[in-house]
Design brief:
The complex is a heterodimer of chains A (374) and B (684). Chain A has 374 residues and is an all-alpha fold. Chain A has 15 helices and 2 strands. With 684 residues, chain B is of the alpha+beta class. The chains are: A mainly alpha (374), B alpha+beta (684).
């Protein structure tokens, strides 16, 4: 088991190396002026004379080949911690290994590592809370549908889940926001209300009840608020999480429901299920112990991938609900060709995917004892 | 049977969802521009001029803020948020009491780039900086021509002898500095801080920064590095020190030539004129104040500037927190020298999605939001929301001709010859081509369709809200007959016989520019089967590349003022080295440099006017560009916003919040309507 985990983890740097090399190679296809669009916004293009644009290219080192070692355009950016130069590959690698520095994020106006760390909790909170209803409701609906194969409840379940899958996230998210915030005023966008965010950030001029300073232990509001004994902020945080969690879960239910259903249908036709029934076991025991457990392996695979995808950010959900998470960060960085941010995010997303895959593989052994890690 | 039941269920669910969407998105009945409510409001405003915020006052304004009124939970009372006026088909809107009366929330599109006044040159950053820092002088209310003192105690004029024109052609401007003003950190502001603030910007000289605005006037260059290269480090430093120095409690600026524009370059709203704390900046690693060390601090990255993410100004609000991409929080400076602001907290939230922003103002969770022009119709009729519109904005949109188009590897001009399959590099140097293009643009249709009639056709390169604009200057108009006549005359008649083909490029996502380009294409192609114009969009990275290499034969762009003076438009549009003119190679059709420089240094208003009138006439006679739109501004806010004021030069959406509070039946600063003819307001 240990050697299996070690082998899989050793693959991680290799995969990361390959992915980043690919991104740097693609960079070579862009002209310095194309890459300059990160620093010169559309609305301000006309403000720059051609000479000023050239000066900016030199300042940001955009005219240097990206594979050269430790050469930044007219500036010493190799040894120092943060710099808004576009990195060359070897110096970028060197900075990671020697200084633990991923570079400067122009998207977030802070070091990439800090930007990623500040955004992980929001996305993690969303993904963790959304995966629970996804798995619980998705698997339950799948099992119910398969047990009641071709009965009305099966049709309703399938139609409901497919409707969710067919709903573009953007439409569904905006719809629930219109109803539950615009019409009813129940669940606002963002992560916290103004008063709560004031307390959580220890700002001045907060409400009078805020006496002790608030400690951000993990950045996960639902956890930190409980650790700080602030149930009012805990509830506020939940209010803000409900709609994005529902949106994220609902549009992915179909996947889990369909896989659980088809896997269950196949398992229910197996001989050992017939034997279990022939032995006189109760139907719920047959389904729970004999069928469901065996049917869950593909479900675990898909859930793991969905979860890893969510951890890597959910752009549309984050945008609609004004949730400052990784997805929005990655999308903004990619659109504006913010290479250090894209690279930092890619490393994180790659690691998450590899680790989630490993966890899923380990789960196989838990779900089905016949699977051995050899 | 079962399947039928399921279908019925699903159809019912979809019908409910559709109804809810319709109910939420349906526009409310159009409100007449002048409702009785609005009239009453305007009347009330006029009767209460004391609400106007006067930067000159030295008496602290009365504030009604008490500690017990501080932040209330913003959304802690959900049962009050569902009231919809009976019979109103508009979405449910929060119409209860003022939410969070001492907290002002703006939901905007763009986030802050940097908070350092020496580097900031974008509106989202600047509107925050102008609330944290004060300048030496300020504009008088909505005026862009009259000034009042701020950190200086007087505005220099020839009459008060603080402005002197010397016999050697130089000019001196003296600012007596106010004493007893403290920075937010507690340190007293001194004339040394003023001098340091101006010198630091000039030494920074980053191409992304507004340093050129001072350098141009004070040292006659646009980059301190250029000056040092030209005259040597020692001489450059001496010139810098001479250009602005301390004299007792005064700060004296020395100009190599008279400047007619300096006051408007430094007035509040121009964030580069912010006065910063010298001690604070030096203590945090900023320029040490010694000119000989300038190279160490020249053009450094913004993130290494000490004021990039920190602030210490003398303004009414202090920086509490900046979370990039999410929110910038300001809190009031209780010791502000003009008396504390009425608001306790101001939050500038970044909310990229318009739908979310709209719901926030609808629910009262945002007090002002950014509304892009295509969404205006969705905002009409929201109860508790007010719009102020047709306010002058010193900005315009123009189509620029390229007089010297590079041919190598340029796919935008076809064969690069006058053969009907392309255009030659000097295609637009023929005045008849330019006049024909001008007569082919349908202003009325464009302004009505895209700007809903809220913008006007410019009189030339100077926006109509600036002084010295000649409102009698002739304008082109849509006339296909005249367009045809000029096309027939162009290039000795060859153009009409052979035809042409080229591409107009606009940056992706800019709907206004797309429509303008397509309108030109349609009207011109209708004149002759041999005329072909392709309209293509490009993503910003490609557009920048093409723009830089000047491969675009005709492009549509604009200019927003840095300071409210005609020079800030005439220079980029008509000076051979101006930002637009240099890309156009305007010098191929005329040279206006001497006149432009003379006007910038002319202190006699009558003589200045004569020069600018002549330049505007030249712009018309030569049809140098197609001047498309003189823009106006429109803002949206909750009706409980009180005392909101406006100046066309102030950056951003919420702008200056010193005089702003929140109360039932709030009123805007009446000078917006009285001093700026054309401005209007509606509320629902």
């Amino acid at each position: 088991m240990a050697s299996f985990i070690l082998r899989r983890l050793l693959l991680l740097p290799l995969i990361a190396f390959g992915v980043t090399l690919l991104i740097f190679s693609m960079l070579q296809l862009l002209t310095p002026y194309q890459r300059l669009s990160l620093y010169v916004k559309d609305s301000a293009i006309q403000r720059y004379t051609p000479e000023q644009l050239d000066q900016l290219i030199t300042l940001h080192g955009l005219d240097k080949p990206v594979f050269l070692p430790f050469q930044f355009g007219g500036k010493d950016c190799s040894g120092i911690c943060y710099c808004s130069c576009t990195p060359q590959y070897l110096s970028w690698l060197g900075n990671i290994f020697l200084h633990g520095n991923l570079g400067w994020s122009e998207t977030d106006k802070m070091p990439v590592s800090k930007a990623l760390l500040s955004r992980i909790p929001a996305t993690a909170e969303l993904a963790i809370l959304a995966i629970l209803p996804l798995i619980v409701v998705g698997i339950s609906m799948g099992i119910v549908a398969s047990v009641n194969h071709n009965k009305p409840i099966d049709h309703v379940t399938r139609l409901l889940s497919i409707t969710g899958y067919a709903f573009p996230t953007f439409v569904f998210g905006l719809l629930v926001l219109l109803i539950f915030y615009g019409e009813l005023g129940w669940f606002p966008p963002g992560r916290l209300s103004n008063w709560a965010s004031c307390v959580v950030n220890n700002d001045s001029f907060c409400d009078a009840s805020h006496v002790a300073s608030y400690v951000n232990y993990t950045g996960l509001n639902i956890l930190d608020t409980l650790l700080n004994g602030r149930f009012d902020i805990f509830l506020d945080s939940l209010r803000h999480l409900i709609l994005p969690v529902v949106t994220l879960s609902y549009v992915s239910w179909a996947l889990i429901v369909r896989i659980t259903r088809s896997s269950m249908l196949e398992t229910l036709r197996q001989d050992y299920v017939t034997v279990a029934r022939a032995k006189g076991q109760r139907e719920d025991v047959v389904i729970r112990r004999h069928a469901a457990r065996n049917a869950l392996i593909p479900v675990a695979t898909i859930s793991g991938l969905v979860f890893a995808g969510w951890l890597g950010g959910v752009v549309i959900t984050e945008t609609i609900f004004n949730y400052r998470g990784l997805g929005k960060f990655a999308a903004d960085a990619a659109i504006s060709l913010d290479i250090p941010s894209v690279l930092g995010f890619t490393l994180l997303a790659t690691s998450l995917l590899v680790i989630m895959n490993l966890i899923v593989d380990l789960l196989y052994a838990v779900i089905d004892p016949r699977v051995r890690m050899d | 049977m079962n399947r039928t039941l399921v279908f019925v269920l699903v159809l019912a669910a979809l019908a409910v969802a559709g109804f809810l969407i319709y109910k939420s998105l349906a526009p409310a009945p159009t409100t007449q521009p002048a409702t009785s409510q609005q009239n009453n409001q305007n009347q009330a405003q006029t009767q209460n001029p004391s609400q106007t915020q006067q930067p000159t006052t030295t008496t602290p304004p009365q504030t009604n803020t008490t500690p017990s009124q501080t932040t209330q939970p913003a959304t802690s009372n959900p049962q009050t948020t569902t009231s919809t006026p009976a019979g109103d088909s508009s979405p449910a809107v929060y119409t209860g009491k003022v939410k969070s009366p001492n907290v002002f929330v703006q939901a905007g599109i763009a986030g802050v780039n940097t908070l350092d006044p020496a580097h900031s040159y974008d509106t989202a950053s600047s509107e925050i900086i102008m609330n944290i820092y004060d300048n030496l002088i300020a504009f008088d209310g909505p005026s862009t021509e009259k000034f009042v003192p701020m950190l200086a105690t007087s505005v220099p004029t020839v009459e008060n002898e603080l402005l002197k024109l010397n016999a050697d052609g130089t000019m001196m401007m003296t600012f007596p500095i106010r004493s007893g003003v403290k920075f937010q950190s507690g340190k007293e502001m001194t004339p040394e801080d003023v001098v340091y603030s101006f010198q630091r910007i000039m030494i920074h000289s980053h191409p992304d920064s507004p340093a050129w605005i001072f350098l141009e006037d004070l040292l006659g260059v646009e980059d301190f590095g250029d000056l040092a290269a030209k005259v040597g480090d020692d001489k450059a430093c001496q010139m810098l020190i001479d250009s602005v120095h301390v004299d007792g409690q005064n700060v004296i600026f020395k100009f190599p030539q008279p400047s007619a524009t300096f006051l408007s370059r430094i007035a509040h709203g121009a964030t580069w004129g912010s006065i910063t704390n010298k001690e604070y900046v030096i203590a945090h690693g900023g320029w040490d104040g010694k000119c000989e060390d300038w190279r160490k601090y020249y053009q450094i990255d913004k993130e290494k500037l000490p004021l990039h993410a920190a602030a210490d100004g003398t303004g009414p609000f202090k920086l509490e927190r900046w979370t990039p991409g999410e929110v910038t929080v300001l809190v009031k400076n209780p010791d502000y020298w003009r008396g504390a602001a009425k608001l306790d907290r101001v939050e500038f939230r970044v909310v990229p999605e318009f739908g979310t922003r709209k719901l926030m103002i609808q629910q009262g969770d945002a007090d002002m939001i950014d509304v892009p022009r295509p969404y205006i119709s969705q905002m009409k009729g929201l109860a508790g929301v007010r719009t102020i519109y047709d306010m002058p904005l010193i900005a315009d949109t123009t189509a620029f001709f390229n007089y010297d188009i590079p041919t190598e590897g340029n796919p935008n001009i076809g064969t690069a010859r006058m053969d009907g399959q392309g255009i030659p590099p000097d295609f637009f140097t023929d005045v008849d081509v330019r006049k024909a293009f001008n007569y082919s643009f349908n202003w009325k249709e464009f302004l009505d369709q895209i700007y809903l009639g809220e913008a006007t056709q410019p009189n030339g390169p100077i926006p109509s809200s600036l002084p010295y604009v000649n409102k009698e200057n002739p304008k082109y108009f849509f006339d296909s007959k005249q367009a045809e006549e000029h096309f027939r005359k162009a290039w000795g008649g060859k153009l009409w016989d052979l035809g042409f083909k080229f591409t107009i490029i606009y940056n992706e996502g800019n709907e206004q520019r797309k429509v303008a380009a397509e309108m030109l294409k349609e009207n011109i192609e209708a004149l002759n089967d041999k005329f072909h114009i392709e309209v293509r969009s490009e993503p910003s990275s490609t557009f920048l590349d093409d723009f830089r290499s000047r491969k675009v034969p005709l492009w549509i762009s604009g200019w927003q003022s840095d300071f409210p003076d005609p020079h800030n438009f005439i220079q980029p549009y008509m000076h051979s080295q101006g930002a637009h003119a240099v890309r156009e190679s305007l010098k191929k059709i005329g040279n206006f440099d001497n006149e432009i420089i003379a006007a910038a240094h002319e202190t006699d208003p009558a003589k200045r006017q004569a020069i600018y009138y002549h330049l505007q006439q030249e712009a018309y006679d030569l049809a140098i560009d197609i001047f498309m739109v003189d823009l106006t501004d429109r803002e949206w806010q909750r009706t409980w916003v009180n005392g909101w004021s406006y100046n066309p030069i102030w950056p951003g959406t919420v702008r200056y919040l010193y005089g702003v509070s929140k109360q039932d039946n709030g009123q805007i600063d009446p000078r917006i309507l009285t001093d700026m003819p054309g401005s209007k307001t509606d509320s629902w």
